[in-house]
User: What shape does this take?
Amino acid sequence: MTERRDGSADGDPVAQTFALDGGLPVRRLGFGTAQLTGPGYWGPRGERADAVAVLRRAVDRGVTLIDTADNYGPGLAEELVAEALAPYPAGLTVATKGGVVRTSDSGWHVEGRPERLRAMCEASLRRLRTETIGLYQLHRLDPAVPMEEQVGALDELRREGKIRYIGLDTVTAEQLERALALTGIASVQNRFNLLDRASAAVLRLCETHGLAFLPWFPLANGALTGTAASALDSVAGRHGATRGQIALAWLLHRSPVLCPTPGTGSPAHLDENLRAVEIRLSAEDMRDLDALVPLVPLDPGSRAAGR
Assistant: This one.
């Protein structure tokens, strides 16, 4: 079986890789680090050695995209990534985010002034022990700062070689269009999963422009265990899989630009998630899953809004 340029193999319609900005290939199923920190993304969740071990296991199992953020911990998740993986092996892309300042497990605010974004990026470089961040994502657009100044700050950092690619987090289709008119954007990270498809218009725009879409909360932040997702059981039963595996497989089948990065602190759960790439959903499976009634979109004032 040979692999084609789109990342799929002969006879296999599901691409396993995606080329960031059309050039840098990453495995579409990555690993997110938020679950390595405590409730509200504040402080540690467990033993530091266990978090390091899970990160190393993810890369050993073939993950080439690690997604983190400076406000996870805060700072802790980036430090764990560096402790586990630096110096980074060839082919591994570490994505991080800046632009949100966390003040407690329930307190945070957006900060998009250019001088603050520069300071955040340089702090991430130090914590990650690298000279260049593969993908640096603006964690939130600051409504008090013109977009041109926020995106311009990241563009300047890219020209200086401190970041390779620019991404945006939690944006509308209109905001993405405006950003694309200002500079090159490689990725978007919006909430999107089997039970929340409110960002479908943004996904279509990513497909049009060839941008990676990193869906946050790809497993619906625990909602898949509720009754709203009970129809998952019939599809999971046909494949001998778990609900979570089917939800991840749905994302991989839904669009070739979707690159989910589920996180966990459990080696067994990590292995379970990564086996989702082996599942091939039929047209009937996709119809059944598409028919699930999406949940009400996330309240922007909730704890998760600052994730």
Remarks:
- The two ends are 40 Å apart (CA to CA).
